[in-house]
Structure formats: structure tokens, C-alpha cells
Amino acid sequence: MSKRDVVIIGAGPAGIMAAITASEQGRRVQLIERNPQIGRKLLSTGNGRCNLTNVELSIDRYHGACPDFIRSAISRFDQNATIDYFRSLGLLLKQEDNGRIFPRTNQASSVIEVLERRLNANQVELALKAQVKSVERGENWTISLIDGRTFTSTNILIATGGRAAHQFGSTGDGLFWARKLGHTLTPIHAVLVPLETVETWPGDAAGTKIEARTQAMADGEVIGESTGDVLFTRYGVSGPSVMALARRIATALPSGPVTLCIDMFSDMSEAELDRVLSDILQSAPAGTLSSAMIGLLPTGLIDIVCEIAEVDGSAQAGRITDAQRLKLTDKLKNLPITIDKLRPFKEAQVTAGGIDSREIKARTMQSKLVDRLYFAGEVIDVDGDSGGYNLQWAWSSGRVAGLLEGNEG
Ligand SMILES: Cc1cc2nc3c(=O)[nH]c(=O)nc-3n(C[C@H](O)[C@H](O)[C@H](O)COP(=O)(O)OP(=O)(O)OC[C@H]3O[C@@H](n4cnc5c(N)ncnc54)[C@H](O)[C@@H]3O)c2cc1C
User: Fold this and answer.
1) Phi, psi dihedral angles at 71 (to 5 degrees)
2) Which backbone phi and psi does 403 adopt, to 5 degrees?
């Protein structure tokens, strides 16, 4: 097969953006993807709606690599450039709460389709169902697939992702090749991942979703706080707001379990909530406590909260004592739950850690150790908070890497 200017491994958002960019520079580009379609993980992002960037982007929403490294790539292709870029591809966008940007169609597939159209228009050569087995550096790069095919190129760009949600193809191959080529890997772990609880009651409330403020406590200290949806599951808790705490919890867990204190009424003080509860009990004094609480809490949680507060849910509402009511109020404001484990990589949205960014040139995404080797996306030790930050990193690093600067070969 004839030689390409660049072989890009991985058609996730970073690899696709890099391929479009390199082809716009007049390069002959080969994009290789193991899945039968491009952007398989992208299709699942934002609950199938793809939160593709965030207008309130700031560098402190990123973790892992040093801030200057991240700033450099993002400043060359930031959230405004991303928005303009997708508009130029014919994709209408809309802004939602907290600055999050989605396609107006509410379909991640629209994002993939406009990108695919541009790949085709730019004559990027695309190999699907093509799993790369190895990359070898000689006078040129030789990229070998497991089906026996090989590609030759002047440059390679590794955009194979981390290890999160590896059912979508990102099994960590790029990390392995980078290490073989002499790069250092920083420790990897799952972030933006659901949490397992010691208590089994979340399983009884599985499927129940609440809006809450959640504090994570370790050794009596608050180690993290977030507000948003909490979803109870058969193993523990999920939902964006608790997944956002996973990074801090992962750091604290080796020293012992972490307690989540869930405030289901963060818009009320304890005294206000107590008055509300008192009114509710008085409005239906002859019925049970559980039935009186029907308008207060999702049904799946009523008996659980009563049990944790050690108040009998079948007791008559009008006979609940002040002390019992105060105990209930306390649990509604501070529902405790013990975390002892994170769920596995398969259920994570993002990988923290990866190729050590100190060994990558920030302005070009080129390896400092190996000539004509570039990286983009989650394979690098950069991860962002929930809210479009991770896809922005993929677009920014893909754009910068795809320019193939620092190497005219
Ligand atoms: C459920 C879910 C929801 C998410 N929602 C959001 C969101 O709304 N907003 C946001 O900003 N981020 C979100 N993320 C995170 C975001 O999807 C990732 O950060 C982003 O996809 C990383 O892009 P990437 O191109 O670096 O890697 P990936 O998207 O993982 O792409 C890597 C590609 O490389 C291919 N590949 C790997 N190894 C090989 C090989 N040996 N040969 C050939 N191909 C290979 C893989 O098949 C894959 O297609 C979400 C993640 C998940 C799992």
C-alpha cells in the first residue's frame, strides 16, 4: 500500500478532528477505527444528545496534566472555535444550563454525521473494522492490523482514548504502544463513574432519582460537594452529581470508606423543612406517617428514610412526636450513605491519567521523545469535569495535533 502522510489511529472525536484538520492541510490521511462505525462512544455522550462543549469553559475544570499544557492546546482551539466550527459544518447548536452546548437536534448522531460528511469531502481514507495490533518506527511508521493488513506513513497520531467505557473500543491500546515507544504513563483510574455503597437499601430504591446537594466526607472533613441528580441503583448511587465526586472519593478511599451526606431539601433550612413536615403531618393526622409523606418524597424513599431515622412509617401521622419529626428532618437534610468502591472502567465516562503530558509538546501535541509521533484526546493524562469539558479537550487536542506542526516531513 502506498505511503500516507499520517495514519491516525482511533476515530473518536479527537481522531476525527485530527483527520479533518490534517486533510485540510493537504495531507494524505488514513484514519483507522476498530469499530464498524466512527464515533461509537460519541454516540452515547450526553445521554445520546452529546454535550459537545461548554461556553463557561475554564482551565480549572481540567485535571491531571499541568494547567499550562491544557491551556496551550485549548487556547489554540477553544469553546468558541468549536461552536463556530460545528456551525460551519451546518450543525445548529443550543445552550442549556451551566453553559452546556448541545446539538439543536438533541441527537449525538447529528454530530457524527456532519463530521463524517466532512471526512468524506476531504477524502480522508477511512478503514473501519480495522483493529491496529502494533505500531513500529523505522524510516517510516508501519502500522499493522490484526487482520494482517499494514499501512505505512510518515507520521502517526494516536487517538485511541483511555480505558473508560471500553465496550466502545477504547481498551487502552494507545497507552500500551506509547509506553513501548518510551513514554511514561501516569497512573490511570476511572473518573465520572458511579459509586458502590456498603448499605444495601439503594437497591430497594433502584430507579428513584432525586435532586440533591451531596457532600462527600472522609475522616470528618468535607472532601467534595456537588448539586444535581442522584440516581439510586441496585449497587449504590449514580447520576452526574455523584459521579462528579468520584475523583475525590478515589483519592480518599485507600484510607477508609467515604460518607455521602445527601441533602434532599437544600433549598430549605432545617427549621423551614421541619415546619413543612409538621404541616404535612397535621394535614392528614389520621393516616400513617408513610402516606402523609407521599407529597414530600418519591415513594421509593419514604420507608427507607423512616427506617434510617428510626421512626415507624406505619405509625399514625398525628401521633409523631417532636423528637421523631426532628429525626426525620435531620435525615431528609443529611441522608448518610457509605461508599467503599467505585464502579469499574466499563461504567466510567472518563479515564484520569494516561500518557504523561510533560513528554508532549503543548503547542503541537507532538512527542518530545519520538519524532513524527503525535497524540490527541483522552489517551493523554488530561480529564475534565462533566459538562462538555472532555469533548472540548478531544476537539482542541485533535485540532492542534492534526496540524502536524513541528514536522514538515
Ligand atoms: C456514556 C458516556 C457519556 C459521555 N458524555 C459526555 C458528554 O456529554 N460530554 C463530554 O464532554 N464528554 C462525555 N463523555 C466523555 C467523552 O466521550 C470522551 O472523553 C471522548 O470520547 C474521548 O475522545 P477520544 O477521541 O480521545 O477517545 P474515544 O472517544 O474513546 O475514541 C477512541 C477510538 O479509538 C478506537 N480504538 C482504540 N483502540 C484501537 C485500535 N487498537 N485499533 C483501532 N481503533 C482503536 C476506539 O474504538 C475509539 O473509537 C462521555 C463518555 C461516556 C462513556
Assistant:
1) -55, -40
2) -70, -20
State the angle between helix axes of 13-24 and 108-121 in degrees (0 to 180), rounded to the nearest 10. Answer: 30
* Ligand 1 binding pocket includes 241 (Cβ within 6 Å): no
The answer to whether the CB of 12 is under 6 A from ligand 1 is yes
Domain ranges within the chain, ordered by starting residue: 4-189+353-402, 194-343
Enumerate residues 6+ apart whose C-beta is below 8 A from 151. Answer: 1, 4, 7, 30, 32, 127, 142, 143, 145
**Distance separating alpha carbons of residues 75 and 218, to the nearest angstrom:** 36
Whether residue 10 contacts residue 158, with contact meaning beta carbons closer than 8 Å, is answered with: yes
Task: Return the best residue to mutate from 112, 160, 176 for the ligand 1 pocket (most ligand atoms within 8 A of CB).
Answer: 160
pTM: 0.93
- Alpha-carbon distances of 210 from 111, 246, 263, 288, rounded to whole Å: 30, 18, 10, 23
| DSSP-derived 3-state class of residue 212 | strand
Could you read off the pLDDT of 107-128 as tens digits, one per residue? 999 999 999 999 999 999 999 9
**Nearest Cα residue to 377 out of 174, 161, 171, 65:** 161
Distances (CA, A) of 160 to 131, 274, 365, 366: 11, 53, 14, 15
CA-based nearest residue to 208, from 303, 317, 138:
303
Residue 396 CA, ligand 1 centroid: distance in Å: 14
C-alpha cell at 224: 467534595
Fold adopted by 4-189+353-402: FAD/NAD(P)-binding domain (3.50.50)
Give residue 111 CA to ligand 1 midpoint distance, Å.
Answer: 14
Write the pLDDT tens digit of every residue in 126-175. 999 999 999 999 999 999 999 999 999 999 999 999 999 999 999 999 99
C-beta of 377 in contact with ligand 1 (< 6 A): yes
